[in-house]
Write a structure and sequence with these properties.
The complex is a heterodimer of chains A (316) and B (251).
Chain A: H1 3-23, H2 30-62, H3 74-89, H4 91-96, H5 99-122, H6 129-153, H7 156-166, H8 178-194, H9 196-202, H10 206-211, H11 216-238, H12 244-256, H13 261-286, H14 293-315
Chain B: E1 2-11, E2 14-24, E3 29-33, H1 40-47, E4 55-60, E5 63-64, H2 70-73, E6 77-80, H3 92-98, H4 101-104, H5 110-122, H6 138-152, E7 156-160, H7 168-183, E8 188-192, H8 196-202, E9 205-210, E10 213-219, H9 220-223, H10 226-233, E11 238-242, E12 245-249
Parallel strand pairs in B: 3-8, 3-9, 6-7, 7-8
Antiparallel strand pairs in B: 1-2, 1-4, 4-5, 9-10, 11-12
Helix pairs in contact in B: 3-6, 5-6
The chains are: A mainly alpha (316), B alpha/beta (251).
GO molecular function, one term (chain B): ATP binding
Keywords (chain B): ATP-binding, Cell membrane, Ion transport, Iron, Iron transport, Membrane, Nucleotide-binding, Transport
Protein name (chain B): Petrobactin import ATP-binding protein YclP
């Protein structure tokens, strides 16, 4: 099967799942149901695409197929910010906050954190990428600890509000923000598209990339910002999903067996969308909303992650 | 012409390369030799802008290396390091095609494809060209990387220990290819070498580094001497002439 065919197959898969999601179990006010389902599908398309693309970019830069961008601690920033707001201003502040300001506020703090982290770490020339990851990881763990500490002190009722935000859920999604989020993701994708071939070269490793005339430091800096943007937006839209990008990126590597990012990115993105729509179908129709989507994604993703670890171990 | 002037590199407080000056003779094969930690690989990496230098200047064809746009330099100098682990799934042909990236930015023209085919033929990889590189033996993979460098078609080729992991047969094959590149295609090649006898048999020019400085340089007959090698390696050696080649016995 040619690579184009494979992409076509994935497109069909996504369309079939979307149709299933839209038109099965129709009950009640048809217009309302279809509209709300349509919005959910849009959100899943954006989040699925953003999560998958950011992971592939991140793994290409780090040459590591079991890393996810969450390692730079953006989820931790998100959770800390939510917790701090509830801790100091009460849960009403968080629930009463308009969707737009909550989105801008969450995405803004995450982007701010990334800009600070990168500009601080890239100030010295020739900084090792892994050093940045390490610092991000340590800061992320630190923020998680602060978050849990604050959560212990919070009133249990207030905590339940935070808990809602801890798991990604398409049902919590803020519909007003779909379009702005979509535009940001489209811009990030367009930027990535212009550098597809450089990405291919980056996957050969830093030394080869420099040898072949890629401005390594510049492109890595920019791509890290693209990753931060994608992660921030999708997290602010539905909440943190940990393993999701990792699974779909690796599915794409296995399915396409190529180095070409044109296929890897498209494939991972489509797998991402399919996984979310499929997962949401299970959540809504099998578990009747009793489990949030991210729990299912994390269980499947965690199992797959273990499988990858064991497989990699054997390869050594 | 590549000229190194008073180049210095420090890691932390340690000076790894200390005010090295060096002129690479054009259209010759130059070997960088010296004990471990002498700064050979670091020097080569600076000469090919893989790492930045702390001090000094490196002139490539009349222009300082940091004044070049990196894509411009990629058409003049190619560098191959000793360890080449690539995670991406690539065939030999795809790997070699990457050598054309400085020219085509990923969109191969017919001319680019000719260069790729020619490089594959030169390294005798025709039968392997559709195999994945992670399925090749160490020697085959090394040849594939050299083919990529060939496709890059630069006047200067820098290689960091190209004989690493090669058995005798493949090591000899590799050196013969490098010799051909110099003699037939007029390339200027600089290699970091550990095996002094390989360096002696195949190079035109030898540069010995020790503790980050050049302690001597010259043609093979001036370096392959008992007292000179003793000074470089702190080892009692005896240089014998066998079939007109200077062979160093150091066992």
């Amino acid at each position: 099967m040619s690579k184009r065919m494979k992409v076509a197959v994935l497109v069909v898969l996504v369309l079939v799942l979307a149709v299933l999601f839209l038109f099965t179990h129709l009950r009640g006010d048809l217009e309302y149901v279809l509209r709300s389902r349509g919005e959910k599908i849009m959100a899943m398309v954006f989040v699925g695409w953003a999560g998958a693309v950011s992971t592939v970019l991140f793994q290409t830069m780090t040459h590591n197929r079991i890393l996810t961008p969450s390692i730079i601690g953006l989820d931790a920033v998100y959770m800390l910010v939510q917790t701090v707001v509830v801790f100091f201003f009460g849960s009403t502040t968080l629930t009463m906050m308009s969707d737009t300001s909550h989105f801008l506020f969450s995405a803004g703090t995450m982007m701010g954190f990334s800009v600070l982290l990168y500009s601080f770490l890239f100030r010295r020339e020739g900084q090792n990428l892994y050093f940045i990851l390490l610092v991000g990881m340590i800061l992320g763990t630190f923020m998680q600890s602060v978050t849990s500490f604050l959560q212990y002190l919070i009133d249990p009722n207030e905590f339940s509000i935070i808990q809602d935000r801890m798991f990604a859920s398409i049902n919590n999604m803020k519909t007003d923000l779909l379009w702005p989020a979509g535009w940001c993701i489209a811009a990030a994708t367009a930027y990535t598209y212009r550098h597809l071939h450089e990405l291919d070269v980056l996957s050969l490793g830093k030394d080869h990339a420099i040898n072949l005339g890629v401005d390594y430091e510049r492109i890595v800096k920019r791509l890290l910002m693209v990753v931060a943007l994608l992660v921030s937006i999708s997290t602010a839209l539905v909440g943190p999903i940990m393993f999701f990008g990792l699974i779909v990126a690796n599915l794409a590597y296995a399915f396409f067996q190529t180095y070409e990012h044109r296929y890897l990115l498209a494939g991972a993105g489509l797998f991402g969308i399919a996984a979310l729509i499929g997962g949401q179908l299970i959540v809504e129709r099998v578990f009747v909303f009793s489990t949030p989507l991210s729990v299912i994604v994390n269980i499947v993703g965690g199992a797959y992650f273990l499988y990858l670890l064991i497989k990699e171990r054997k390869a050594w | 012409m590549v000229e190194v002037k008073q180049v210095t590199k420090r890691y932390g407080g340690k000076t790894v390369v200390d005010r090295v000056s060096l002129t690479v003779p054009p259209r010759q094969l130059t070997s960088l030799i010296g004990p471990n930690g002498a700064g050979k690989s670091t020097l080569l990496a600076m000469m090919s802008r893989l790492i930045s230098k702390d001090d000094g200047e490196i002139w490539v064809e009349g222009k300082e290396i940091s004044c070049y746009r990196t894509e411009e330099l990629a058409k003049k100098i190619s560098i191959l390091k000793q360890s080449n682990h690539i995670a991406a799934r690539l065939t030999v042909n795809e790997l070699v095609s990457f050598g054309r990236f400085p020219y085509s930015r990923g969109r191969l023209t017919r001319e680019d494809r000719n260069y790729v085919r020619e490089a594959i033929r030169y390294m005798e990889l025709e039968e392997l060209q559709n195999r994945y590189i992670d399925e090749l033996s160490g020697g085959q993979r090394q040849r594939a990387y050299i083919a990529m460098v060939l496709a890059q078609d630069t006047d200067y080729i820098f290689l960091d220990e190209p004989l690493n992991n090669l058995d005798m047969k493949h090591a000899v094959q590799m050196m013969k290819v490098l010799r051909q590149l110099v003699d037939e295609l007029n390339k200027t090649i600089v290699v970091v070498m550990h095996d002094i006898n390989f360096a002696s048999c195949y190079s035109d020019h030898m540069v010995a580094l020790k503790d980050g400085t050049v302690i001597c340089e010259g043609d093979v007959s001036s370096i392959m001497r008992n007292e000179v090698l003793h000074r470089i390696y702190d080892l009692d050696v005896r240089v014998q002439t066998i079939e007109n080649r200077r062979i160093c016995v150091y066992f």
